[in-house]
Amino acid sequence: MAFQSLVSNKLRSLLSVLGITIGIFSIVLVFTLVDSLESNIKKSIQSLGKNVIYIDKWQWMGGNGDYPWWKFMNRPDATLSEARALKDQPVAALADAISFTSSASTTVRIGDKFLENVNIAGHTFEFSKIETLEITEGRFLNEFEDNNGRAVAIIGHNVASGLFGKATGLVGKKITFYGKQVEIIGVFKNQGDNLVNIDFDDNIVVPIKFLQYIDNNLKGSNIIVKAKDKIGVDAIYEELRGSMRSIRRLKPAEDDNFTLNKISFLSDTIGEFFKIINLFGLIIGLFSLLVGGFGVANIMFVSVKERTNIIGIQKALGARNEFILLNFLTEAVVLSVLGGLIGILITWGIAGISNSILANTDNSFRLMMTWANVGKGIMFASIIGILAGLIPAYRASKLVPVEAIRSK
């Protein structure tokens, strides 16, 4: 009976559905955008490594009020000798790999072509055990090249394209920076742009000892420790802290002059941030949905008014109050859910079109429609339908049969 009523008033039903559609579309689109941003950022962060702790003088989340920023600045940088000293500490038995990294930027040349401000990252050979490195041709540096500071490099896709116009057939060729000729031994796979710019596309990786030899003014030095899979970073954290204090000869009363940064610090902070964004998005979407709900409520009041005599006849024939109440509630919920489904389909279409466009670019960002967000959309549509139809349905169920039949 509810469906028949909706079909018999097509234009009125369509207008009611439209308001709910806009509201659900707004909510689901906000949820989809926020979830996609969070997922892409966390995916980029996870590329830093699994079960990994970064030993640095800076705290990734900016420190706290008890430790001012200038104290972080006055801390000593991590050094290659400290990374090697860690391998002689008991903590080394809990670690799968211990690597050191630092970086500089300079102009890279090949003949008449050059690229300015290219990031030159120096790593030890253990870095390949910490992070999954996708190399399209060639290989990563080995222990011999690392220990001897050989002039070899693995170049990013954008660097290869900028210097050679291609990213294949480059192994064995030489590039020049800091006045030194460096042999290419590998090319990184094109990773595409990501939201936090964590990739090797614009980088050149060389042995750390070679980078220290050609540039004394390095930046971003840190030690990277990967815990064994069965142990995890939480179990190794305090042991690693004690080892670093021992290496730096800190007295028991002295504060740490280094920070142990876990990937989970970033992931947890990002998760909390996006929870707040989701809340604001939900509030904005609910305002749009509330307007649609008023439209449904208005239509239901009109529907009750038009069918008052029919309600009277139904009650005179034995229809109970619950039947009348359920009839109008069903009509309101069907209207709302139908609008919600249309809003979800529109969001799905926009996500599909956007991803098709992004697939033709170097950007790795993608919009992801999840079943959780679809469920939320239908749930909100159902709730607003019940709320919008409750009062009209209740009034209809309480009509007196004789008075209802006599009404015009």
Give an overview of the whole structure.
By secondary structure, the protein is of the alpha+beta class. The chain folds into two domains: 2-45 and 268-406, no CATH class; 96-227, no CATH class. It has 14 helices and ten strands. It has helices spanning 2-8, 10-46, 69-74, 80-86, 127-130, 143-148, 157-164, 208-214, 233-247, 263-306, 308-316, 321-358, 371-397, 401-406; strands spanning 52-56, 95-110, 113-123, 135-138, 152-155, 174-177, 180-188, 203-207, 219-227, 259-262. Strands 1, 2, 3, 4, 5, 6, 7, 8, 9 and 10 form a ten-stranded mixed β-sheet that branches. The longest helix is centred in the C-terminal third of the chain and has 44 residues, at 263-306. It is elongated and about 100 Å long. The model has no long low-confidence stretch (mean pLDDT 86).
